Amino acid sequence: MLCATSEQDASTQLRIIESCTKNDRVKINSKKNEILLINKKSKELNLELFNEKISEKQTIKHLGIERQDRNTPNVVNRISTARATMYSLMGAGLHGINGVNPLISYKLWRTFVIPRMLYEGAAMKMKMADGSTAVLRRNRPGTKAEMWSKWSDIAYEEMDNTLAVQQYIQQAINKDVNDVEGILNQPDGVDEGVWKYEHLRQFCMELNGLSVKLQAECNPETCTQMTATEQWIFLCAAHKTPKECPAIDYTRHTLDGAACLLNSNKYFPSRVSIKESSVAKLGSVCRRVYRIFSHAYFHHRTLFDEYENETNLCKRFTIFVTKYNLMSKENLIVPILDDQELIEGESEA
Ligand SMILES: [Zn+2]
Ligand SMILES: [Zn+2]
Question: Which pTM does this prediction carry?
């Protein structure tokens, strides 16, 4: 390998090689040599060895390190190498809660995965602002509020992890919370069960935001029961025998219960494929958590409107359960859609 800082320098070194080979009576095949120009400034170089042009390359592998013309590490490649290393160790038990002891997992990870990921980085100056295609989804310390989670979008096909559907949904919400149809638009190749499951997870997470707001004014003394209209008092299903919890307790118990079910290893062991019998459980979760919307709407309207303006959550939920037939129309008592009252009117007639 020759290193040169200028064309003249390189040319001189090549002449030295030519002269040395003549003395030693060996020949170097100029076709087998390559040249890599680092930080090239659109200048045509014409370096020759034995009167033959040396071919120019964008990347050259030297001592196992892939050098690029910008002299920065290939971040995408490093990440995928690390991931491949991870996967190859899964057979040996480097996975989840039923794998090897976490301490051993950590040791394996530190010994095999990290070095392979950082290999090139040690030899080169780390720099991310090189226009590489890797999208790093990180909120670093010191991130400004307006830049929070503002990384560029990734297409669904390019999300290659087990949480891709959740990532895709959250990306759509981040992009435009008012584009309810867009958020609920199922991309090709997504299993419908997983799609429904991940959306419901997301709803429950965001409903926690509403329940935090509710805590400020919904207290057990004033809202002693979970009601919406005068018609029903909802019993809290979180207890051995369902009971009349105050509205705010009902809210907490129901969200906790939903989180328990949706994270249960028994019913939802995987987030890539979901059994039909488990998908069937989603309807009842929807029905229970919907009561949080209806209580907020009929009893804490200002608060409901505030939250709805920010998130469009109830609207999205209503369209979601209607689209996938998870709740019957009579139960959707919050008039959030333009054509919803019309539907109610029809069913009463
Ligand atoms: Zn209340
Ligand atoms: Zn309860």
Answer: 0.61
